[in-house]
Amino acid sequence: MTAMHPETISVERAPVQRSRGHAANVLRRLLRNPVAMIAATVILLLILMAVFAPWLMPQDPFATSMLKRLKPIGTEGLPLGSDELGRDLLSRLILGARLSLFMGIAPVIIAFVIGSAIGIFAGYVGGWANSLIMRCIDVLYAFPSVLLAIALSGALGAGIVNALVSLTVVFIPQIARIAESVTTGVRRSDYVDAARASGASALLIVRRHVLGNVIGPIFVYATGLISVSMILASGLSFLGLGVKPPEPEWGLMLNTLRTAIYTQPWVAALPGVMIFITSVSFNMLADGLRSAMEVKQ
Amino acid sequence: MNPTPQVLPKDRRDLGGPRQPLLIVRDLKKHFPLKKTGFGLRRERLAVRAVDGVSFEILKGETLGVVGESGCGKSTTARLLMQLTAQDSGELVFDGQALGAGLSLREYRRQTQMVFQDSYSSLNPRMTIEDSIAFGPTVHGVSRREALARAHDLLARVGLEPARFAGRYPHELSGGQRQRVNIARALALEPRLIILDESVSALDKSVEAQVLNLLQDLKQDFGLTYLFISHDLGVVRYVSDRVLVMYLGEVVEVGEAEALFERPLHPYTEALLRSMPSTDPLKRTEQAPLAGDPPNPIDPPSGCRFHTRCAYAQPVCAERAPRFHEALPGHAVACLRHEPESGYDRRLIPVQEVAHV
Fold it and tell me: Architecture of domain A33-53+80-294 in CATH?
């Protein structure tokens, strides 16, 4: 194949000007979005809080005290009050970030990998294989996610791992559907046809031409699911299907404190406030990512 | 790089010699099935007969222009030739080797490349220009380093300074520049046949002229053969050696470009040519050359498919399908008017037309 212009290979070259890649452009636009940056900062702080929880907790989150039950916010030694067993709520909220964030992020990551693989395969192959896979996915998708999560968790039994599995199963169809529709669009584009015309195998085309163009939208969608996952996980814990007491988790804390809603409403609402802040932050970040990626190029 | 066109050494891959057509297309058919209608016994299988028995040859070193209205099957033919769509039936013979028999699809695709109409959607937006061009050769086992070096050479060859453009992304280029990149990508595999599917149609007139000139130069330098699909008759006349006219999934006329444009044999070709706007105000078109839309390709008219819109149609045209035959040397047509003993009464031809026939 080199016979055509052997003499041109040795042409002296000027250094090639490089353009910023897509990822760098998205990051640059994201950095200029104040709302997304605030959300990212909050998420970063929450993650740091979860990681360094043992050093940040002012007191033992498991130490109960009958004397200090349901103290209001601002009590000496109990800056955010105490729960129904007299445990320091601040310490429990800090430690609870670990499980709550884990239950929010882990199912989405696993579902992202599996769902994308299913969706991209179905979208690229098309035809009857696509119909078969997607109709199976639709069966799962037809269930309301809360109901499906509760049903699966209930069937599998209480526990963190089972809650994780059921949440993952809830999110796979949603991510697979997005992946399939984005891939179907890319599959029809001329650059995929051009790659096919060059004689490349399907696997190579997916790797070099499809993946880079579909992963962005799927990622944005998955980021938005983190807040849903957190709320669902809290719901499962609330129902006694996820984390078991005395382990602190925001959903579970909300559950056990709900009896105190009339005596200490502000204290009882605090775990809910944490869930709210976290899920709103993830949603804001997902919105920021979406608009940073959607810029018409 | 190579400012003067060089005399190419005979292509090593040339098997059949200069008289062997580079590509023979035999009875190519592609019907796209539609949703079925009706139930039970009344259930019908409908299909759009996009390409319905197309046969032609592309000669070595020529530019074969393909014209026809939108929806006549030009683009489907291009996709069938590139094997991006599988044909229902029909055969492709590349330089004497039948595709699938003597020639593998992979090897065929190395020798046949395509440039698409939409310069933007035919480039991967996440890939730099050099990576897009180098992709094809790496698929065929060229090292990445060498493929990139070749990509830079080709960029220079199509008039884009490699240092400025190689590391850029498609959205940073203009339409004309992108189409040059697409041409470079097609050339990267060193093909012998390039299918140009409306490749210059979306460009500004001035840019279009530049790209056409570039294509002519490249054809000389690389010893290429073009299949040039366009709805722009003026451009087709300018670039083509021979022209093929399609109507409703069929070839209706093939001939030398000059002969076909000066003396069209098929009434459809005649009508198409009359639809070309003239720059001479004295030659302005007085009447609409072609009335109405083309008939439905799901249920094409009986006999000659053009009879519903033909100015010369006679009852026999609705009954008998014309045979595609060589009416004049090197000039073939599918029309009963030119078919001996077809039952077409030539005495009824309008007087001014007799001189032509």
Answer: Orthogonal Bundle (1.10)
